[in-house]
Amino acid sequence: MSIQTMESMVKWVDDNVMQNPSLENMSSYVGYSPYYCSSKFREFTGVTYKQYLAKRKLLCAEQLLISTEDKILDVALRCNYSSPEALARAFIKVYKCTPTQYRERYKQNKC
């Protein structure tokens, strides 16, 4: 698999994060088996497909929290979290605060 193909896999995930991209969809896009894509994806990015997707979903939510006034529920659903609670768990794990707290802190530091 070429470097360009591996880069296109990463770009495809980034471009489709709000559509809940699956490993199977990505592998179909590049024309290789899911197992082979999974292996090459990890080799290229240093993380599994699932870990990369989780990071991208969290980044999606972070960007929406700071750039919109959308409700937490709407942010969670747009970024493919199953619930606001699932988004909150992910936020607490990484940022040590809830999405609401994150948004408030961002606004305070911006002023």
Summarize the structure.
This protein has seven helices and no strands. The protein is mainly α.
Describe this structure in words.
The structure is a single chain. The longest helix is centred in the middle third of the chain and has 19 residues, at 49-67. The mean pLDDT is 91. This protein is elongated. Helices cover 76% and strands 0% of the residues. By secondary structure, it is mostly helical. The protein starts with a helix and ends with a helix. The chain has helices spanning 3-16, 23-30, 34-45, 49-67, 72-78, 84-95, 99-110. The chain has seven helices and no strands.
Q: State the end-to-end CA separation.
A: 48 Å
In DSSP terms (H or I, runs of 4 or more residues), the helix count works out at 7
CATH fold annotation of the largest domain: Arc Repressor Mutant, subunit A
Please report which band the strand proportion falls in: under 5%, 5-15%, 15-25%, 25-35%, 35-45% or over 45%: under 5%
Q: In terms of structural class, how would the helical and strand content be classed?
A: mainly alpha
CATH superfamily of the largest domain: Homeodomain-like
* Rg over CA atoms: 16 Å
**What's the CATH class label of the largest domain?**
Mainly Alpha
Strand and helix layout:
Blueprint: H1 3-16, H2 23-30, H3 34-45, H4 49-67, H5 72-78, H6 84-95, H7 99-110
Helix pairs in contact: 1-2, 1-3, 2-3, 4-7
Q: What are the key terms here?
A:
7 helices, elongated, about 75% helix, about 110 residues, Arc Repressor Mutant, subunit A, mainly alpha
